[in-house]
Specification:
globular, binds FE2/S2 (inorganic) cluster
Length: 111
Amino acid sequence: MKKFDIHFSVNFQEEEFFIRTYLNEYKNLMQLLREKVFLDGFGECQGTGKCGTCLIKTSGITGNSQIMDRNEPNTLIKMGINHPLIRLSCQILVSSDLHNASITIIDDDAI
Ligand code: FES
């Protein structure tokens, strides 16, 4: 497997970032976004799926990453969010399921 074989785009506040990564370079997508997009206050619970501060809107994610499990569905319901493309980035692993996807980081203001 090539070192950088997963490519996808990230949109945040009118800016687009082109991400190159590889399988399991980061523990999850939230940690990748924190480091590569330099987000303050993003992922406050460190990935337990309970704080809801790592919201993204996804487009083009494939495979098992489309499935919500663990704490994700309950946290989103508590936040009043019921949309299949709005996700907690901490619950998505860095895998080939992200290749060619488009991720939009959701601001607190946008909810
Ligand atoms: S980091 Fe807290 S829900 Fe994702």
